[in-house]
Amino acid sequence: MTEVDADIEKLADIFKVSICKTDLDLNILEADSRLYHNFGYDKEDLASGLNVWRLVDNSQIDRLRSKVEEIQAGRKPEKECFIARRRDGSSLVCEFRLIPCHRGTKIIGFDAIFSDITEQINRQQLALIKHGQEWFNFLYHNMPGGIFLLNEQWKIKDVNDFAREILGYPQKDLQEESFERVSPGFVTLAQQELVKGQINNMEHSFFGKTGREIPVLTSLREFVIAGETLYLISFQDISSIIDLQKAMLTSEIKYRTLVETALEGIAITDISDNITFCNSAFARMLGYKQNYLAGANLTLIMDEVEFHRYKRLTQEKFRGGSGRYETILIGKNGECHHVMVAAAPFYAAGGEVIGTFGVVHDISEMKEKEILLKRQKADLKRLSNRLLEIQETERKNLARELHDVIGQKLALAKMRLSRITLEMEAGDTGLLKEISGLISELADNVRHLSSELRPRILDDLGLIPTMEWYLDEFCRECGIKCHLTVKGEPSPLTKMQDINIFRLFQEAMLNIQKHSSAGQAEIIIEFSPEVLNLRISDNGKGFVPEKIGNGFVSRPGLGLLNIRERMDMIGGRTDIASRPGEGTTVTAILPLR
Predict the structure, then answer these.
(1) pLDDT averaged over the chain?
(2) What is the mean pLDDT of residues 416-440?
(3) How many Cβ atoms are within 10 Å of 82's Cβ, its own excluded?
(4) In Å, how far are 33, 44, 74, 468, 522 from 483, measured between CA atoms?
(5) Measured by CB atoms within 10 angstroms of the end CB, which terminus of the chain is less buried, N or C?
(6) Tens of pLDDT along 283-334?
(7) Topology of the domain comprising 457-591
(8) Fold for domain 262-362?
(9) Is residue 549 helix, strand or coil?
(10) How many Cβ atoms from other residues are within 10 Å of residue 470's Cβ?
(11) CATH number of the domain at 3-122, please?
(12) CATH superfamily, with its number, for domain 143-242
């Protein structure tokens, strides 16, 4: 070698690399002593045509050829790892770089640099193996599952901590024991199953040290290490899963028993409105068999109107949770069933809505009774109205008879007594004057009774003048100060409205006189185009109102109940507000349109 070559060899020795020069075909022209030493060649081999191709393992030749072509094409040379081959056939791992040598712009050969990294790679592999062994030991003893390692005779070579804890055995107690001690019959079953391949997720039973049976899910692998056949059994304790399954089965039995024995109909539909489940009560209600309704669409038991109404209500339920509503279902024979449905969204395990759950109560009989009751109420109201009409007619006739017949005859009798008195001696007129006074008093009573029965002024002058006349008579008779205020332009009322408003007013004033101990009363009647509003207030002792139906309140007695019936008769309503010590206010509202 030249002096420069000697310097290069010194550097190669310092950096523990091998250097050689090659031609374009990678035939070695010069090489340092380290290359001969590392690869097991001598200088005489150089003369016999030693080249780089002989230094590289056959599996690497194509890869090396590609690198040479890339460098010749102008790509920058990079350090690569290759598997090399010594003269004796042993392998080593080298870092290898080809550096092109130029004459002008032409490549005339290469400088090849080898670095033996076999020892370094071995150290790394050993570290990885050690690290992997540590991880294996950690997982083996700490994973949440039991592991048994068995030899070819199915005896236990090793067992992890989890398995010992589950089975209750000390650390060395199972060593070299037959696996039959842990699970009688498992070995025979496993040998049969292994013929088919690996065993995955096979349910079996293991037995703990105390004899407790433990349901497990097992997997079995067969493998060979250093010529020895081994079996790896991994298992999971599924006691809690079995218990949960039993609890779920018990719960399902309870649920089905509850659903099937329920008197109410129960049905579940999917999002396409198909019946996915119904109990026997639901099917019986409509006259079908359960299996016939399963899978049927709701349009089978609903007409178009009720179905669209159901769809609308269902969407509202999905937005607002459960709800109750009435609907009509059609039975097998076409009969209609009025039902009350309590429905709620039906959820899947993931929380998404997959249908509707409904409890259905047949209220057809109740509906029939309700219709009958409404009819009876309407008949009763018509009868009551008719009785009030007859009562008012009779009052009117009786008042007219009292005023026109009896009143006139009493007046005639008094006139005749007066004439007789004038014709008799002065000393004989005392008895006649007494009789005349009685007739006058009787005539006043008849006139008053006639007015109470039916004030004639009501028919002649209308409501407001009649109320004013009545208040004058009322104040004079009982001494209670009364004030009447009329607001708005009085609207013309029907005869029936006139008499019933007056009767309400009359009854309220009589209640003030009898019960209130009031010193004054305020009456306000207000007219508008739409409504008549009558309010009668007193400053009396008041009372605690009591409900008597439809929200109407009153003190005990029939007077104010009559008021309500009269207002119902003409389409109005009445309200009474009272508190002890704060007086009473009666309000009547009559729509005029």
Answers:
(1) 81
(2) 67
(3) 21
(4) 140, 148, 123, 9, 5
(5) C
(6) 999 999 989 998 999 999 999 999 988 888 877 766 665 678 888 999 999 9
(7) Heat Shock Protein 90 (3.30.565)
(8) Beta-Lactamase (3.30.450)
(9) coil
(10) 21
(11) 3.30.450.20
(12) PAS domain (3.30.450.20)
